Amino acid sequence: MNDxxxxxxxxxxxxxxxxxxxxxxxxxxxxVHAVRRGLAAPIGSLTQMGTVRLxxxxxxxxxxxxxxxxxASLDDLVFGAWDxxxxxxxxxxxxxxxIGADMLGQLxxxxxxxxxxxxxxxxxxxxxxxxxxxKEGPTKRHLAEQVRADIQQFKQANSVDRLxxxxxxxxxxxxxxxxxxxxxxxxxxxxxxxxPSVPSSMVYAYAALKEGIPFANAAPNLTVDTSAMLELAAxxxxxxxxxxxxxxxxxxxxxxxxxxxxxxxxxxxxxxxxILGNRDGEVLDDPESFKTKEESKKSVLDYIFQxxxxxxxxxxxxxxxxxxxxxxxxxxxxxxxxxxxFGWLGYPMQLKINFLCRxxxxxxxxxxxxxxxxxxxxxxxxxxxxxxxxxxFKSPMHAPEVYPEHDLFIQLMKLKNTLRYLRGEELITHxxxxxxD
Length: 437
Ligand SMILES: NC(=O)c1ccc[n+]([C@@H]2O[C@H](COP(=O)([O-])OP(=O)(O)OC[C@H]3O[C@@H](n4cnc5c(N)ncnc54)[C@H](O)[C@@H]3O)[C@@H](O)[C@H]2O)c1
Known about the structure:
This protein is α/β, with parallel strands linked by helices. The chain has helices at residues 23-36, 46-49, 65-68, 89-96, 101-106, 108-112, 140-157, 184-192, 200-210, 227-236, 248-262, 279-284, 287-305, 311-314, 359-379, 408-422, and strands at 13-19, 77-82, 160-167, 215-217, 239-241, 266-276, 318-325, 334-342, 348-356, 384-385. Helix 8 crosses helix 10 (227-236), helix 9 packs parallel to helix 10 and helix 11 packs parallel to helix 13.
């Protein structure tokens, strides 16, 4: 059993550093302020509303997660951000158009006070964007030093005790790990040499990890999913989580697909398409950024269906994912899924799903949970990949020798068992024979 006393209490302020002050970040920050003021409820957040069952089903012990493990309180959160645009958080939230003008008006003072620091940005990695609020420096190492200086200044100015950084910036172009990412020494050389295989997101991540700050990646970019970053995280005791928040269509996919597989229903095709009109949609309209997203969205079914174990059911699955930029919808994404499945004796059936969701409304509580859990992980002495946070991601980071776990329900069980483990409680296996002895 874990030694419970080893978790350091969540005393003092927790600074949440957001790279990118767009739809997700502003909806998250405004939401936290709204909840603090009692204007709204933190719906969708496991850390704020979820419970965890302890002991037997007959024990009647199901505390709130936030009462069970020592998490930072919403009142102790302070926010800082970088963006390529100069708009403060209030203006950026208005541009994002997710939260209504009435509520934003009530939060104007808090939100206007959050002004983004100049960004590390290069159009080579996000082709559809350009903005004026940028850092300059002779090498990527110099830029990383500037990010570290922002962090240190923020920490001091706000008397912050601990920090977490979350990449909520735009999706960068597709990239696979290469020589520059193979070790920390190679990566630092690449920083000094302005190697093109170091995109902006890695400069921020490097700065955070050098400071010993936990880092989460809300987008599908490679960023911290490399040997170099794992080496640095181990050296500085920093927990990592990623990649790509599991919201909208992929969330539904990882709810439905495990159910079909559990009943051994075959699937011959899964066609997913979306229309999306926010800035994220505009960035994803570029084929190179879309490729990063597509890889992330497509991987889930392979792992859930396990075609190698069930070739007659899933071997020929045709999985297509499309995202179409359609400005009139703004952040209100619409997703359609058509699933061609087959049952007993091979008889075909179809399932249609039409999800009219709000992308950032689904993403904001995840940013909150991931930030609070990463801070908990660090106080519990855990560093490197936090696989128990797979629950929140489309492409969960995982140890090289295991495949990622995509089934939402296994992910939830893993998360709650990790919390039980951290508190020295018995893990729940759902065997349940003891009720029938
Ligand atoms: N909304 C969701 O449900 C969801 C789900 C999964 C992943 N994501 C990912 O999260 C990210 C944010 O989504 P969003 O809807 O807020 O997008 P957005 O376009 O509204 O916001 C992204 C912000 O990042 C800024 N930015 C880009 N590069 C930057 C850099 N190098 N440094 C600082 N700022 C930078 C942009 O200027 C923009 O303001 C995207 O990568 C998106 O794909 C979103």
